[in-house]
Amino acid sequence: MRQYLTSSTILILFLIIIHNDSYSQDKVYDVVILKSGINVVGAIVELIPDKTVKMYDTRGKEIIINFSDIERIEKKNFNYDKYMEIPLITEEDKLRKNFAFFINGGFFIRQDEIETSHNLNLTANYNFKQFGIGPGIFLTRINEKTVSAVVMDLRYTFLIKGIKPYFFADIGYAFGETDAKGVIAKFGSGMRYNINENIGLTADVSYLFQNYNYNVSNLKYSSKVYNVAGTYRGVLLNGGIAVSIF
């Protein structure tokens, strides 16, 4: 027996097609484009100029963005299905910055003799997610003389939120009129605690190797010049501040 579609069946099928089409068609959303390149899509519910933007994404999640992180705000048509594939900003994204500057200092405790001196470190890093690399300047006092060195700083941060432990290695060369010219290397670990999204406090401990190579003579007894070479070793106990931007 041949079966025919009733008018009610046709109406139901028509409504299903219309519903699916309206569900997947393009809709207008607020789009906050961040300086990091991330697009945050949703509806802005509060905007405080030069402070924050509060919005809800289409999943209903509340997001608060600092004005300083925003490149521009637009309105665009988005297909809902395609939008579900767009990555949302997370707390980790807000804390992760491209550039970081470290200023820290403390004490250098020599291993070969009981002597404590001060040291200062200035470092600028470019971050690839949790890995950072960049140049730095290291200053300390050895045998009542200032040692200045240019180093390359490598560091890895294990966590993005909360107290963030990190490991670092600095390798470079010492310059200047001092008996501590030569290769310098220090390896250590520490912790960073962020006061806000951009500024954090650091504390770390490291072990330093500093080559020395110099000539000595005693003209009172002999004109002969002797060469002395070796390595200073010691522990660095430092604290400081870290500033992350962009």
Can you characterise this structure?
This protein folds into 2 domains: 26-89, SH3 type barrels (Roll); 99-245, Porin, CATH 2.40.160.20. Helices cover 11% and strands 63% of the residues. The protein has 3 helices and 13 strands; from the N terminus they run αβββββααββββββββ. It has helices at 7-24, 80-83, 91-95; strands at 26-34, 39-48, 52-57, 62-66, 70-79, 99-110, 116-128, 131-142, 145-157, 163-175, 182-194, 199-217, 225-245. The strands form 2 sheets. The chain has an 8-stranded antiparallel β-barrel with strand order 6-7-8-9-10-11-12-13. It has a 5-stranded antiparallel β-sheet with strand order 4-3-2-1-5. Residues 1-5 have low confidence and may be disordered.
